[in-house]
Amino acid sequence: MTDDEDRVVGLLLAAGGGRRLGGRPKALLTHRGRPLVEHAVAVLRAGGCARVHVVLGARADDVRARASLPDCALVDNPAWERGMGTSLRAGLDSLAGTGARAALVSLVDQPGIGPEAVARVLDAYDSPESLASAAYAGVRGHPVLFGAAHWAGIAATATGDRGARAYLREHADRVALVECGDVAEPYDIDTEADLAHLE
Question: pTM of the full predicted structure?
Answer without folding.
Answer: 0.95
